[in-house]
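Anyone up for a design puzzle?
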């Protein structure tokens, strides 16, 4: 296809976004972080006021989600958070993206003054990368415990590590305090996403450290929370916004423990939505747990189960309005949603 230009009919009511932000910062931020940063730009350009609770309501996030996003951009040196004498968040100032990228932050005018909401800043943690000496590098390489980490990393990357990359892994253990298991999971996670660049791996590691992640299990929960498939599951079940901890746990189980592909999970979601408008994650979990027990791996396996169950039933009369479609067949099979709802409510 040919190249094309993008024009805009009305330029008077616009919010300006730095090209440097798009080029260097946007790719690493998650959905909530991007939305909140752009909303701050919009608020500043319009001279409007807002609050943490207003932002949370705007995007259907929790206030903790908003605070985490703000602290993420503070770590990136794109904004400065201001606190009053009670250590409550009272204001935000956007910083010059160009100077922030060059590690020379300069504050612009405050975006908004925030009412006291009782949020206190988290203790400052130093995640900057030290300059390691050759002696430190040599000691790290020859250490019996850490040499195993380097060996595993080389297997994932598919080549010997450079001195700079070895120093990065030393940074993970020395400054970020990552365990061997967590470093193993970190590199595997990035490689599975097609990212073998150590600059990318380092960014992921720092983001996990900022989240307080110390185990592979915690990392897996965060990774699945922001995975595109999880948001598709949320949408399929009629949910909006970021998943809760419990919803993310369900998705983690379906994707990682059960090993279901997206099409099977969405099939369970479709059936759940047709059956009930309450406790949908619980309903979908019961369906998928049943399919897992029956070793479902493909949608054809689901069809076979439906057909086998239909043949095992003897119908004395056909329900009024019932057809031969998949939904009616499914509703006549072993998923008793009325009983299931009572069971869920009783727990």
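Challenge accepted. My sequence:
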């Amino acid at each position: 296809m040919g190249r094309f230009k993008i024009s805009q009919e009305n330029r008077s009511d616009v919010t300006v976004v730095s090209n440097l932000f798009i080029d260097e910062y946007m790719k690493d931020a998650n959905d909530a972080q991007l939305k909140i940063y752009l909303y701050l730009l919009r608020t500043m350009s319009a001279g409007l006021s807002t609050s943490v609770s207003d932002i949370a309501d705007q995007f259907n996030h929790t206030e903790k989600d908003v605070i985490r996003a703000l602290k993420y951009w503070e770590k990136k040196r794109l904004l400065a958070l201001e606190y009053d004498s009670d250590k409550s968040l009272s204001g935000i100032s956007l910083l010059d993206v160009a100077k922030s990228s060059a590690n020379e932050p300069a504050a612009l005018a405050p975006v908004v003054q925030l009412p006291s909401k009782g949020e206190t800043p988290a203790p400052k943690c130093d995640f900057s990368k030290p300059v390691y000496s050759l002696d430190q590098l040599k000691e790290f390489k020859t250490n019996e415990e850490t040499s195993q980490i380097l060996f595993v990393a080389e297997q994932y990357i598919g080549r010997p590590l450079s001195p700079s990359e070895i120093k990065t892994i030393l940074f993970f253990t020395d400054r970020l305090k990552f365990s061997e298991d967590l470093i193993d999971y970190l590199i595997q996670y990035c490689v599975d996403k097609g990212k073998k660049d150590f600059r990318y791996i380092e960014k992921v590691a720092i983001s996990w450290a900022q989240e307080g992640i110390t185990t592979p299990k915690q990392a897996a929960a965060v990774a699945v929370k922001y995975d595109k498939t999880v948001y598709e599951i949320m949408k399929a079940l009629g949910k909006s916004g970021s998943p809760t901890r419990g919803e993310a746990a369900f998705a983690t189980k379906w994707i990682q423990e059960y090993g279901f592909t997206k099409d099977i999970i969405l099939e369970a979601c479709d059936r759940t939505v047709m059956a009930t408008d309450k406790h949908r994650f619980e309903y979908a979990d019961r369906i998928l747990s049943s399919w897992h027990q029956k070793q479902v791996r493909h949608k054809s396996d689901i069809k076979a189960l439906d057909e086998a169950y239909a043949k095992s039933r003897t119908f004395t009369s056909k329900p009024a309005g019932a057809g031969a479609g998949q939904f009616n067949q499914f509703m006549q099979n072993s998923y008793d949603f009325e009983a299931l709802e009572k069971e869920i409510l009783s727990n």
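A detail worth pointing out: Residues 228-312+324-346 form one domain.
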